[in-house]
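Hey, sorry to bother you again with one of my protein questions. There's a protein on my desk that I can't quite get my head around. No rush at all, and the record is pasted right below.
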Amino acid sequence: MKKQRIWIVLSLLTLALLLAACAGQETGTLTFQANGEDFVRQGFETKDGWQVTFDQVLVTLDNVTAYQTDPPYDPLSGEAIEAQSEVALGGPYTVDLAQGGADAEPVLVGEVAGAPAGHYNALSWTMAPDASGDPLVMSGSAEKDGRVVHFTIDVDKDFAFTCGEYVGDMRKGVLAKDGSSDLEMTFHFDHIFGDAGMPANDDLNLGALGFDPFAAVAQGDVLNVTLSELQDALPAEDFQKLVDVLPTLGHVGEGHCHYAS
């Protein structure tokens, strides 16, 4: 009985110490956003001259997690993140990257209160199936030389992105005590369609598919297709180019991510 009482006292003391440590920890609120950039909100001209506008770009995000790493995580290494601290938003969350006006802010995915203060310099997430089974659904219209194609493209393939620090005009992820900071999951859709505003021989346009191959497999002026169906519909070279470029969608601003299926 005496040993049992000693064990109980020690357990309570340990719990008290843990609660005291948590109470003294500096924390703040970490906000997670998703951004399809102006290409999605405002529309753009593809590398092959189609004017594309999006009605919806639905992406389903899961396992969203932010990390504090020292040394900083290098996404080009392909290694797992070794973090001193991490905050999980979880999921799944389905968001429309095209929502709001042309000048809308990035879409709020969620936030975590009580996140440990510090610099969150790594971020990971998966693009997981939504209720219909598609992690990414792009719908809108494309116009060229008087022809209009109304499209819905369902990317029925899972993606996992592991990214380093956000790269952009401002630094993100620095969370002070009782403060707030945001992190951004960025998606570069010009990597699929190309950008007429860039030189034709730019690496982005050389790797992009453009819209001509999509228009070629449309039924009249309507294209309603999944990635799996495109494997049969597109020439093998075009389909391979699409498969190769899809993993490059995920970024943190201009910062790079490691991709895994």
In short: The chain has a mean pLDDT of 89.
